[in-house]
Specification:
Strand content: 25-35%
Mean pLDDT: 86
Number of strands: 11
Oligomer: single chain
Helix content: 10-25%
Distance between the termini: 5 Å
Order of helices and strands: EEEEEHHHEEEHHEEE
Structural class: alpha+beta
Radius of gyration: 21 Å
């Protein structure tokens, strides 16, 4: 399972110092102007600490906002902040990209799969985290990335998903014929 460990870094230019990295504070600002509502997720510049706002709601009628959402905004719900940081519409509207480096971990559920000859692996993502499958396979199977690339080229690593580039969705693969692997089995990353 690929899980987030913290909020990703937001790539956006700071108007105060010119730095290009922000971190999410997990706090929201909500402003009502008569019957219209605006809501922002506050982010802080990693260099100077200047605050910027990511637009979540713009000029929305107060009555059209679900009470649960309003409650989550007012209580600075960290889960809502995490959801919004993965929402492509919010990221596109605010011209923000995410850097997930160091913000995720791989839970393999143990290393009992390393003594098998053939392993069928299901990789699950708890969040939309773009990661290189070759890196996940290398980390999960205690191999070097070069060794994983070699196994892929030799046809000993197969998957219906494209393993080059980055993936952020669930996929499966089969790995066979490694010297340190002995018996068939199924494992979830």
């Amino acid at each position: 399972m690929v899980e987030p460990t913290r909020f990703p870094v937001l790539l956006r230019r700071c108007t105060a110092c010119g730095h290009d990295r922000f971190r999410a504070s997990g706090k929201f600002r909500v402003n009502a102007n008569h019957k219209l509502l605006d809501a922002w997720l506050l982010v802080l510049c990693s260099s100077c600490g200047d605050t910027a706002k990511l637009s979540v709601l713009e000029r929305v009628n107060v009555r059209s906002v679900r009470p649960e959402l309003m409650e989550r905004l007012h209580t600075n719900d960290l889960g809502l902040a995490a959801e919004l940081l993965q929402d492509p519409v919010v990221l596109h509207r605010n011209h923000v990209a995410l850097d997930w480096a160091g913000a995720w971990r791989l839970d393999t559920g143990g290393s009992d799969h390393l003594d098998r000859e053939v392993i069928d692996v299901s990789v699950r993502f708890a969040a939309r985290i773009p990661v290189r499958p070759v890196r996940l396979i290398a980390d999960g199977c205690a191999l070097s990335r070069a060794e994983v690339e070699r196994l892929l080229a030799e046809g000993k690593l197969v998957s219906a998903a494209r393993l080059s580039g980055k993936l952020s969705g669930d996929f499966t693969f089969t790995l066979c014929c490694l010297p340190r692997l002995r018996r068939g089995g199924r494992h979830r990353l």
